[in-house]
Structures are given as C-alpha cells and as structure tokens.
Predict the structure.
Amino acid sequence: MKTLILGTRGSDLALVQTRDAASRIGRAFPDLVLEEKIIRTTGDKRLDVRLSSPGSLDKGLFTKELEEALLDGSIHAAVHSLKDLPTGQPPGLVVAAILERADMADALASKHPGGWQGLPSGATVATSSLRRKNQMLLLRPDLNIREIRGNIPTRLRRILESPDWDALIVAKAALNRLGMEVVPAGLEVTTIEEMLPAPGQGAVGIECRESDGETRSILSAIHHEPTARCVTAERELLSGLGGGCHLPLGARATLDEGGKLHLLAALFESDGIRWLSQKT
C-alpha cells in the first residue's frame, strides 16, 4: 500500500482528530502517503433533528455515510469520535484502532463565573444531550435546559452573542483538541466534576474493512490498549442495555495501578436516575 485514505466528517473537531490520527500513522510509517476525504453525514445535514429524541435516525447519525464509503472502497479507514459510533458495526467492518483517550469530562462554558454553582436561578443552559440535561437538572433543578445544534465554535459564539443563553455544556476533550482559543472572551470554562461522561467520550476510534489486513496492520501501530479496555467496558454496557449513542447513559471506566478495571455508570430518564451500578 502506498496511499491510505482517511474518511472524516468536515467539522473542525473531526478534522483535528483525523489529522492527529494521520500524524501518528505518518510517524509509524513515514513512506506512506496519507490522504483525507471529507464526507458529510446525516447528522451534519439534518440540523433539524433533535439529538435528544432522534427516533429512527438514532443509530449511525454521524457515521452511516462514512461506513458506506468504507464498504464501497472509496476510503481505507474512517475516523470517528467513539461516543458517536454505534456499538455494533455493519457486517464486514471493525474498529481496528482506538487512540489514547483525552480528558473524558464534561465542561461548562458560561457567561457567569463559578461553574454550574455560579449560574443564576433559572439560567438557560444549552446541550443536545439528554444525559447531560438530566445530570445538570439533578445538580440544579431550577435551570432551563434547551437543545442546541451546530459545530462547537458556532455554539460557543451563539452562547456569547445571544441574551437568551447563559451557558453551554460540551466535552472537555473537544475544547482541548480544538485549542482553548476557540472559546470566545467572555465565556468561562469549568469542569463539571459531578457529571458522568458518555460511553467512549474523549476517545477516537478508527474503523476499517475486516478483510483489509494491510490497513488493520497499519492501524494496530497506533492502537492504545488501556484506553480500549476502558471504552470497551463502557460500550458493552451500552450495548447490553439495548441503547444507541443517544441513550442517556453516563459511564466512566478506569484502570487502577494493578490493571483492575472499575466501572461507574448511571442511566437516566426525564425524571432523573433510573438505574445506578458500580462494577469492578
């Protein structure tokens, strides 16, 4: 193989993640030519869809077209935010590499200092995640949680420029990858320590054809097994609950110094926690 084509969504975050993956591959295989192919997914086109209740669009909202490009051979590998990737791959596809996980926490970008505790009574907080909505309402039942769509820089600008919004909940890993300079002056970013992340949050997964041994071999060079162990546990829990990427499940798996895996998870409904479990 002389050229490896990486498929990606066209958002700023997706491109940063894909270029990071390409850089890792390039260091491992300096003679390999790496190309990037941008593919628009249903989730990118359908900004009218509510992610908190996507119905039939739930599975594969941000991945379907990338997987179709893999299957028809127009790309060799697809780079995904792992939390967006359904737990079951289409026949013939595998997740061949998982990159080392970034910060898995959620963060609040707010016009008001002091994190979620500093939000004024009745403040309007933006998120498209039912998981985030319910956890925030457990912390602050007085808040008004509203859905928002668009890429992260656009959402941040909307929060700052509109008097109707007070804050945005976003993955901390996304802000770190984009660079904190993407956050406009006037917004303060704080970590929400009390919130459980989505399964796989902060991790990047790279998918390819199961039969493509050459690509699988290349991707194995950048695979991070400790991250894979943790996110696999989180995603297996999600799969066992029969949920798609938008099931309001919070899950955080960690490895202790002895290599033992610990998993903390909570499943939410509109009226709060329905199920809570801790496993080791």
